[in-house]
Specification:
Elements: H1 16-25, E1 45-48, E2 52-55, H2 56-64, H3 67-76, E3 79-84, H4 105-110, E4 119-122, E5 133-138, H5 143-152, E6 155-157, H6 167-187, H7 195-218, H8 220-233, H9 243-287, H10 300-331
Parallel strand pairs: 3-5
Antiparallel strand pairs: 1-2, 2-6, 4-5
Length: about 325
């Protein structure tokens, strides 16, 4: 991949609303604040894409544990597990989960646990006043799915950064603002003759780009990483092996990588559109095909300043592109 070309561009049109829904639904991890400190690699951790590492020592122990030992081992990792009863269960309850304490309704609401969810991971301190990492698990969920949610909590930043708990909300708001601006610019690119429009779209692009790496880190990347790790350590010798669930997880991981690529491409396309339109508008002014009016201005210096703003956004995106490439390779191993 080169720094100038989008990654496997499929979207074509501006699909921000649908992609944002994909971002919000991608994953069982809530927030990212107060994560456990990074563990040195010689303590059983393995580096994975998006500046993260997985506590494989703990994960392998869980994958080999007998079912009657599993919940105690999870508790030993300072992770609480709470059961979410199904109002209209479509399959039998998992007996392993039957004795777990029930998650109260207020917690489910605060954690955004939807009826469609099988599980949700809550790092300690991220929401609901929980002092310990907590897994919310549907009573009918498989033990494989329980391990999926626990594994989210065994992934920690490898760069020592503790992400803000409101990252999802900040990204959603920034992405929505960019969507509003960009739709109006696609309708009428001549708005970019207005310095205020150029200022606002550059700020919106930069804000989304500056949050994208970490948003993908706790979202799509973790979902793909978790499913790939589980496929490797829950094999035919594990009491939790489920060929159907593993195949489903691989498809889900692939979808998460594709969604990350789509979100990247939407932002990349917006940058390239704005850059090309401002260059064209400046050329039209120089050629006399357009004329500045009240409230508009686009001198050569102003065009260069706007190009510099977009260059800063491209630098942010280059880091994201590189890690998406690493994620694609990791997920397809």
């Amino acid at each position: 991949m080169t720094s100038a070309a989008p990654m496997a561009l499929r979207a074509g049109a501006w699909r921000a609303a649908a992609l944002l829904r994909g971002l919000l639904l991608a994953g069982g991890l809530v927030g990212a604040g107060a994560a456990r400190p990074a563990v040195p690699p010689d303590d059983g951790c393995v580096r994975v894409p998006f500046a993260q590492q997985v506590d494989m020592g703990s994960m392998n122990a869980l994958a080999r544990a007998q079912p009657q030992e599993l919940l105690a081992l999870i508790a030993g990792l300072r992770i609480d597990v709470l059961r979410v009863p199904s109002a209209h269960p479509a399959r039998p309850a998992n007996p392993l989960l039957a004795e777990l304490p029930v998650a109260h309704e207020q917690l489910l609401q605060q954690a955004g646990f939807l009826d469609s969810y099988e599980g949700r991971s809550l790092p300690a301190g991220t929401c609901c006043g929980l002092e310990r990492a907590t897994v919310l698990i549907r009573d009918t969920a498989s033990s494989y799915t329980l391990l999926h949610e626990v594994l989210h909590l065994l992934i920690v930043p490898a760069d020592g950064i503790v992400l803000r708990a409101d990252l999802e909300t900040r990204f959603a708001l920034a992405f929505h603002r960019l969507n509003v601006y960009q739709r109006r610019l696609y309708d009428d690119p001549s708005r970019l003759l207005n310095p205020l429009w150029r200022r606002d779209i550059a700020a919106a692009l930069h804000e989304v780009a500056s949050l994208l790496f970490d948003r993908l880190r706790i979202g799509q990347s973790q979902e793909a990483i978790v499913e790939r790790v589980l496929a490797g350590c829950i094999d035919e010798h594990s009491p939790y092996f489920d060929a159907g669930r593993r195949a489903e997880g691989r498809r889900y991981g692939e979808a998460m990588v594709d969604n990350a690529v789509d979100v990247f491409n939407v932002l990349h396309a917006a940058v390239e559109f704005c850059d090309a339109e401002v260059r064209q508008l400046r050329a039209d002014l120089v050629a006399g095909h357009r004329h500045e009016t009240a409230g508009t201005s686009l001198s050569a210096r102003e065009q260069q300043a706007f190009a510099a703003e977009l260059h800063a956004v491209r630098e942010e995106l280059a880091r994201v592109r590189a890690e998406i490439g690493s994620l694609k390779r990791f997920q397809s191993r």
